[in-house]
UniProtKB/TrEMBL annotation:
It comes from freshwater metagenome. This is Unannotated protein. Keywords: Cytoplasm, DNA-binding, Sigma factor, Transcription, Transcription regulation. The keyword Transcription applies. One of its GO terms (molecular function) is DNA binding.
Length: 451
């Protein structure tokens, strides 16, 4: 535990170098790394410490340095290359996209590198009519949305490093042009701008948006390969995870700084991981449980399974608490938190109309026995009131609110009958005495006897 204590001691100095990761999550990350023989934590685990921080290169490097201070190594390698290649099979890419190759042309030798790469990219993304026809004919009969999505994103080839830089530069120039147009419009100077310059700014802004779309589309398979690694827990559907990962990819496209020298896919992976991890934490459960509590719940479930195999029975709360070094109350609390909420509309059995709400007792409602008793009591009260004259019966109805549940005061009843409140009190006393007569009260006494 001494190593973990040191984590918080060095956090102040590390925090001054940029956006710091969450200290509690960082402490858990260090404990996890120190518990392993190789002292290594993965990028998927590290993203929990950056879940509320933009995963910029500076933040990632700061996290790496802080972990190194405690002897832990960050392995942020992304083992997705094989999965990406697996998507490029004959079902998704080979029979769908016809890639156009530009042969060497002496006329291209005078072009700048960026212009040459851009020319090749336009050819690369040019759709093939023949490929599209094959796609339509092959996917026409499929009803699997995941497979259809895979086929669609497989039509776009992966980018090389120079192509990513070209797109990033276009995005940079497009963003600057959009900001200038917005500033001029806000100041009312847009109409005063030279038509040629205004046209040029709009062209750059449009080109930047197109570059964003191309960079995003070319990396959609990266999102799928990462999302598939989070789909096994059953917390969210694969398509939902892909959608959240796509939002992270779009953020990465906006934040990507090509001058840092990073390959875009390496940078985007952190944003995609963060978006998916955050979505699982926020949306997977009806009631959100903090990340550190989910970690404790998962640990308790894992230890409980191990003890069940060892003891050949379910461990008691006391035995779990002893193994986990938790208080017994915390073990019970974690068990309560681990219970998944169920919808009252969920069917009891497949193919039946009955739902869970049909068998759940609602303590706010009367039981059938209580409802029957109340109905019989009302009938008995009406029978007793029938023994009185009209004035006595109406007086008691108003005084005790028998009709509308609103009891009236002596003065209010007196005004209604046109007599004094004292006279109403006298009539009430006389009427109640009449009802207490055993001849009238016996039918009511059975409902109020206490065992």
């Amino acid at each position: 535990m001494s190593e973990v204590t040191e984590v918080s001691d060095s956090s102040t100095e590390s925090s001054s170098r940029g956006n710091p990761p969450d200290d509690a999550a960082f402490k858990r990350l260090v404990k996890r790394g120190l518990a392993r023989p190789d002292l290594v934590v993965s990028g998927d685990e590290a993203i929990e410490a950056l879940i509320d921080v933009d995963p910029t290169p500076e933040a990632i490097e700061q996290l790496r340095l802080r972990l190194a201070e405690h002897g832990v190594t960050l392995d942020d390698a992304v083992p997705v290359a094989e999965e990406i290649d697996a998507l490029d099979d004959a079902d998704t890419v080979g029979d769908v996209e016809e890639v156009v190759i530009i042969a060497h042309d002496p006329l291209l030798d005078d072009l700048e590198d960026d212009d040459l790469v851009e020319r090749r990219m336009r050819a690369r993304f040019r759709p093939s009519t023949k490929g599209t026809m094959r796609l339509n004919s092959q996917s026409g009969g499929t009803s699997d949305p995941v497979r259809m999505y895979m086929r669609e994103i497989g039509r776009v080839s992966l980018l090389t490093g120079p192509e990513e830089v070209v797109l990033a530069k276009q995005i940079e120039r497009g963003t600057a042009a959009s900001e200038r147009l917005a500033d001029l419009a806000a100041e009312g100077l847009l109409d005063a701008l030279e038509p040629a310059e205004r046209t040029q700014l709009k062209r750059l802004a449009r080109k930047g948006e197109d570059a964003k779309a191309e960079l995003t589309q070319a990396n959609l398979r990266l999102v799928v390969s990462i999302a598939k690694r989070y789909a096994g827990g059953g917390a969210m559907q694969l398509l939902d995870l892909i959608q959240e990962g796509n939002l992270g990819l779009m953020r990465a496209v906006e934040k990507f700084d090509w001058t840092k020298g990073f390959k875009f896919s390496t940078y985007a992976t952190w944003w995609i991981r963060q978006a998916i991890t955050r979505a699982i934490a926020d949306q997977a459960r009806t009631i959100r449980i903090p990340v550190h509590m989910m970690e404790a719940i998962n640990k308790q479930i894992r230890v409980s399974r191990e003890m069940t195999q060892q003891l050949e029975r379910e461990p008691t709360d006391e035995e779990l608490a002893s193994r986990l070094e938790y208080p017994v109350e915390k073990v019970r609390e974690l068990k309560r938190f681990a219970i998944d909420p169920l919808s009252l509309d969920s069917p009891l059995r497949e193919g039946e109309d009955s739902s869970l709400s049909d068998i759940i007792e609602d303590h706010r409602l009367e039981t059938p026995a209580d409802a029957a008793t109340r109905h019989m009591l009302n009938e008995a009260i009406e029978e007793a009131l029938d023994e009185l004259n009209d004035r006595e019966r109406e007086l008691l109805r108003m005084r005790f609110g028998l009709d509308d549940g609103q009891p009236r005061t002596l003065e209010e009843v007196g005004r209604q009958f046109g007599v004094t409140r004292e006279r109403i009190r006298q009539i009430e006393t006389k009427t109640l005495a009449k009802l207490r007569n055993p001849q009238h009260s016996q039918r009511l006494r059975d409902y109020f006897e206490v065992d």
